[in-house]
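Request: Not sure, any thoughts?
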Amino acid sequence: MILNNNVISLNCCLKSHVYLIPDKKGYSLVDTSFPNFGPAIIDELRSLKINLKKIHQILITHSDWDHIGSLKYLSETLKVKAYTSKKEYDNWMKKGLKYLFIPQDVKQEMLSYKKYITPITKKNIGDFKVIYTNNFHSYGMTMYLFKKMLFAGDMVQSQSGRFMAIPVEFNVNEKTYLNYLKKFNIKGIDYICQAHGKPLQTKQLWDEFIKTIN
């Protein structure tokens, strides 16, 4: 699916989106979907006639398995580095993946992904503004803003053409999460590309969504 600015949401990853963004250096990928999706992602990129050598980085929003599952395969196949916030990296690696949302049988493999990740603290990475979050869905989820398009990971989801909150059982701290949403500055953001559900334009929809939060 082609979005604004020729951004592509890959069709093989509809349950946890992977986005391909054309930038000044070539292309960036946002997230890697579930484990074992790597070959399908590469096949779709080839079918779109994307020059794989022009993909220069992978931006990871957070370390849930449906976002980093194919990281190793894609990083090795494309020969590129992946980036996420230092806080997410530290909690992910140093605390042994103490998250609610990663099956036990894949935790050990995920720990081996350390060598593919470069932690970041800067405000920008290439053409992307980096937006750091704190202790709500994960311990340091990272969002990326590109030409008024926000690649939001699991900040929100969508269903039937409207934004929805992430269910309480999938958040580290529900109160912190809801407060973050209420205070989030949507100015300068025209499109939210989340991991779950169809990407949506923010016009009116965001204000309507915020009104539903208690």
